[in-house]
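Here we describe the complex-level prediction in full. Unlike the single-chain runs in Section 2.1, the two entities below were treated as one system.
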Amino acid sequence: MEQAAPDPERLWQPAPLEPLSHPDAGLESMVGEETKGARDEGPGDGTMTENNFSLKKIEISVSEAEKRTGRNAMNMQETYTAYLIETRSVEHNDGQSVLTDSLWRRYSEFELLRNYLLVYYPHIVVPPLPEKRAEFVWHKLSADNMDPDFVERRRIGLENFLLRVASHPILCRDKIFYLFLTQEGNWKETVNETGFQLKADSRLKALNATFRVKNPDKRFIELKHYSDELQSVISHLLRVRARVADRLYGVYKVHGNYGRVFSEWSAIEKEMGDGLQSAGHHMDVYASSIDDILEDEEHYADQLKEYLFYAEALRAVCRKHELMQYDLEMAAQDLASKKQQCEELATGTVRTFSLKGMTTKLFGQETPEQREARIKMLEEQIKEGEQQLKSKNLEGREFVRNAWADIERFKEQKNHDLKEALISYAVMQISMCKKAIWDVLKDCAVLFFFCAPSGRKKS
Amino acid sequence: MGKLGEAGLAATAGPARTLGMEGECRASQARSWGLPAGGAGGDSPGGDAPLPGSISSSSLLQAEVLDLDEDEDDLEVFSKDASLMDMNSFSPLMPTSPLSMINQVKFEDEPDLKDLFITVDEPESHVTTIETFITYRIITKTSRGEFDSSEFEVRRRYQDFLWLKEKLEEAHPTLIIPPLPEKFIVKGMVERFNDDFIETRRKALHKFLNRIADHPTLTFNEDFKIFLTAQASEFSSHKKQGPGLLSRMGQSVRAVALSMRGVKSRPEEFMEMNNFIEIFSQKINLIDKISQRIYKEEREYLDEMKEYGPIHILWSASEEDLADTLKSVASCIDKCCKATEKRMSGFSEALLPVVHEYVLYSEMLMAVMKRRDQIQAELDSKVEALTSKKADTDLLTEEIGKLEDKVECANNALKADWERWKQNMQNDIKSAFTNMAEENILYYEQCLATWESFLTSQTDLHLEEASEDKL
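The structure predicted for the assembly as a whole is:
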């Protein structure tokens, strides 16, 4: 599969062959903002260039989620969630936004979009979708896709996906993406008409290439190792985090049991009654505070999950390179063997074993005319082969260049985002500690000051 | 930690403030703000503390007035972070002297009244052909005249403590004798001589003897004195004296029969007492269970947490730009783990033993109640006999007279001891929970400091990088 230059029909304007090596100042600044804003809940910015002359900002948001019932392909009733995508265009001068499009999409349509992008932009690290099913759950979170918390987090994840695509210098210009945002009906047919499913590489072919390729670019080998490590370490982190969350939940909730006991005890106490009531109240507050704490942490976990899935996208790019390289190597090998055959026929020496050669030896030589014909055919094939090899080589180098540029862009984004995520984790811990201290003081102040003991009685 | 707190603690800021401004307002000295200052800090919190919960803006300004030469870095961190902490509506100036505020209400024993000091330590294992057992060393220091010497050292085993308790119960049936740690722990114990078990028992035995020493009546008990001072042979021969096993058994059978009658004629105040004891017993048992469960859950949380930090280190090995940040996060998590461990050990030392002791006390109280009822019942049965039989009236009247005295003594003893016990109980419980709150605050303060310093290091780096880019 050869796709170095994106099909002009799929873009709003013909894209330059090397879009990334000439940084477009307008796009760059937008991209910088996008990656920062990508995790905000509010609408983010994307840029579309039209005619390269005016920059129109657009805002994309996945603002609502709704349960729907419908009939699926097998005419059976099913329940699914639909998400409302709103697109607003922002006039550059006055900053006011106008709603330009709004439509409903379900998760499977997002998947379709992404699969399409993967096929047509194999040199790009395509942003991942939020997980299909809830994984790394701790006991409170249900693994049910209909659970409102899950749906909410998925809504945010889908919005994030669209923002990432919209802020990508190349992906943002794709027509199918544009139609995804603007054309509700008939979009699926339009995507399928591109025939992208047919153009996709077979998994088997890719796997074969991975094992058999002899000389892939070293950088891609390193990248593959990195993505494996990243995936492994983030999975491990998320697993342990889920366990920690589970345990912490247990600690807080058991404290809640104190609440009622203290309250009942306070009924028989005179001086200590108020203090016990207060302590009991504090325990109740403490026990219920865990819900908010863990919800915040869930957002943090989602940020890590995005990069867990990004690791897979990185590997996809590596696989594509391996496939192209393998293809090239096979073509070169094929050409070399044809050349050799040709030479042997021309000179009459048989260096390589061939069935034709054996049968010729056994059953008589072929006629000079036959031999001439064969040589001519081979020479034509060789010519063709050399052309193909040349273009394959060119494609391969082009792919490596483009892919590597996007990978560099991705690396910067990743470092920035993950650092922000870690910092936000620290901010969460800080606010949790402050609140806890405040709660203890507030509630236990009564215990300390209202019923100060008047000393032990000795004799 | 020289900042003054807020929120309703402004009342204590009153006397404390003056103390603070004269001396230096430092947390390390804050602990002495309590009793030794002639009771000024001690009485006012109880007396004129207003309703907490109102933030007094004037107390916030105290931070500027007080001498803040220490921990100014902390102050900077807080104000810098104010912009980052958008979630908190309360002032970023956290009261970092919460520990000092709590400590104001901690009271120390009045050392000048104590003249008997006892320690229990050095558990030792003894192996004989029949059995293996543990003895504990008991050191007594005293200035009392009735003791032959001023220092004693003896070795006793659990059985001996049991003997002492029974003797005290015999001598003072309606006094609240301190509880002994249990003979066996049923669940979770494989071996009697597990180190933790021995240490817990040692601490409980230490408490037991000291509570007796602090008791106004029990402290002068003769058996107690012998327990503390007699050497091995003298002690074992002394133990053999006194009513034998059979007679004791006989007493208890009669006791059960009588106690049923005693309940009916129980005076009002003892009905109230009994009611209190029942409810108290129920609640303290629940608290004991909950506390044990919390400890277990925290232990499991800590185990998981210990795995969490190292993963970040592992990750940092495959990253370049992120490596430092990841390593910092790992070190913060480790510090928080250490803080958790510290809090847990505080929990197991300050709260669990106290709660458990009061579980045992509640059982003791019910036994005391029964004994009182028995004594009452004895009198009642004699009175009944007098009214019905009309024979031996003189003898009965004499016996009734004695029994009436006995009942009055018993009741008064119990009443007085009850008040004392209640007071101690309130102090102990308050103290235990205060300690717990203190431990919690300390824990959160440590975690807070850890993460805040991480945050500043990250934002500082960011500013450094930004200024480098500009160059």
